[in-house]
Protein 1
Amino acid sequence: MNEYDSNKIVELMETISFQRIDKIDEADCFIFNTCHIRQKATQKVYSDIGKIKKIYKNKKKPIFILAGCVAQAESTLVFEKSDYVDIVVGPQAYHKLPNLIKKYLQKKMKFIDTNLNVDEKFDVLKNLVNKKSSISSFVTIQEGCDKFCKFCVVPYTRGPEFSRDHSKVIDEIIALVDKGTKEIILLGQNVSSYNYNGTTLAKLIKKIAKINSIERIRFTTSHPNDFDKELIALFGEEPKLMPQLHLPVQSGSDKILKLMNRNHTKSDYLKLIDDFRKYRHDIQFSSDFIVGYPGETEKDHLDTINLINEVNFTMSYSFIYSRRPGTPASEYKTIPKIVTEKRLQQLQGLLFKQQIDFNQSMINNENIVLFENKTQNDEQFFGRNQYMVPVFIKNKSIKAGEIKKIFIENANRNNLFGKIA
Ligand code: SAH
Ligand code: SF4
């Protein structure tokens, strides 16, 4: 979602005659769009600000803007931590940047806006002209979260759950189609809880599928408790809905799931996976795992390992639990690093093996690939198969936006390689 937001910020800045540039030492203005989900991302922000400060030591100071979830969470504290920052703007207030910059230039005062009015943000964003063409495009349809998992900052940084008006979502998609988009990835922190006056995610996907030029639809990220029957069944009914789902589980231990306030058990999760497979036998799953949550014993960890073995994931994100200030879990006693690191290694070893095994199972098979662009190597084309795995082929005649059957010849953990079938 930060990538989607950053692109919108670029478009907003263009309305006041700023342009995105690549040269780090020639900017009039820096905007850091930040992530607060784990401590490491937050720490990096301040060390990166230090780097910019150094580069501009003997030059005119650029306007420095801190945007995103670190800005939201730390608010005025940002100015205390770094006097280099001029404007602080939260993830639901960045649409005001053109005005904030104008005001800053007039008054040379520091400004902060951490308002959580999502409606107003999308009202402004809808007027932006999309100039970029992209075969696969993100569209935010939902933001925020009311679930309050005990480890997570999202409900505090992105605010309460909000679903966008489906007609405005469709307008945005049609504008993207005009620029060549073939695949839509619907975004939200809890995208499967999308509901705009009765239009659920399943109903929205059905509307999008009616747009002729859209060939593929995906959505991320979902919470296991938000799936209705219609949405599960849609994987079997709607060929444009791709057979790959990111479904974070966090842990395979019922005790830990309860301590996390996830409101589902391991068997609820496994049953959901089974339900999907009933409708679409080849559907593949990826997930998120938190390792070493406070209270996690060796047995809890093994429960997670067992769940991974039962599901067989094609790709996953796994991180050691990170204490986040202000969340209920931040009060709990943490587990020694030596233990969590060992568990992470074991868990990732298994997840990586499953990923390689899955990719290798594609060898000597045909995949259906939507091609997105050429790589730096001019002869190589990049696309993704049905399951989201990157596929590379050497072929000069392919065009971006084409869908082709590809015979897979080789695989590694992250990529597949093949030729036109
Ligand atoms: N809404 C989604 C996840 C959004 S947050 C869900 O409920 O599953 C993205 C991922 O960041 C989470 O799935 C979780 O694995 C990770 N995450 C969030 N807070 C974390 C923390 N305090 N420490 C480590 N990982 C965390
Ligand atoms: Fe965070 Fe997802 Fe839990 Fe919401 S449901 S609090 S976004 S992990």
Protein 2
Amino acid sequence: MSKYILAIETSCDETACAIVKDNNQILSNIVSSQINVHELYGGVVPEVASRIHIENISLVIEEALKEAKITIDDIDAIAVTQGPGLIGSLHVGIQAAKTIAWLYNKPIIPLHHIVGHIYANKFVDELEFPLLALVVSGGHTELIYMEKEYSFEVIGTTQDDAIGEAYDKVARVLGLGYPGGPKIDNLAKTGKENYTLPIPKVENPYDFSFSGLKSAVIQLINRLERRNEEIIKEDVAYSFQESALSQVLKITDKALNDYKPKHLVLAGGVAANSRLRELMQDMILKYPNIKLTIPPLWCCTDNAAMMAVAGSVAYDHKLFGDLYFSAQPSKPIS
Ligand code: KG4
Ligand code: ZN
């Protein structure tokens, strides 16, 4: 018999609901983005985000059911992002999920947002274990080792800013607007190696750091402004990106060497970065026994289909919640 999972994702600034059949067949994937509102402020304003989630959540759920051409009676379980994320935003999705679960007597599955990003890869490939996931997003920069299905060990993390946060901040000081990642990605394509920026160093071999690099970019821009010199935005974007990504490459390379997984997957919004995708494809040539999967662009950034596929696997492991769990803004993955 087929299995239908309805998932709700509201951890940041996308109100999203998706329905997935039998682990990876997407019947609907509705994302209502708030980017046009937040870009007025240069970043996500948490209070505003939760208010817009409240306005949109019922419509997004209705739309997901309509597009999937099924009714709530056909759904086997409701999956929802419990954390990490913005507390007010998470709360809206969780309340909606609990209400449906209670009203229609369906099991509920609380999920970790990053687990969704990792399982998004199931839309394009079978996951093979042991697996190493490089998670690069607006809130996370982590290397996660999965010895088997649904088991997660964080082997490295950022000691300060997430990589996406650094992209957004650098874009902001260059006056490029929010979200900055795609803008820097594009601009860097025509940039040259004109400015020297530091490659951050961290003691723990699998940890990352981006705040020093971010400060170096800010100092560079201040210095150029003080001297009335032209700021060549393409070149700043190029140098920042090369420096940030060379750190990511080096650390991932070391982890592949040490952990020898069968599969490397990329996950999170920054996995949409064209230069990172290119560098990873080059690096994996050194490892003929390791499969590389990079999620398609549409499922790198936040969406509910990825939460539904993670929910399907959690359903198979009977990882159900009760109606009393609450949002966990800093939920640990394991
Ligand atoms: O996964 P995501 O949608 O939300 C979080 O869970 O954080 O990631 C959003 C982040 C933002 O920081 C955005 O600037 C970054 O992903 N991003 C990119 C690109 N597309 C999105 N960063 C670099 N290059 C891109 N092409
Ligand atoms: Zn995300």
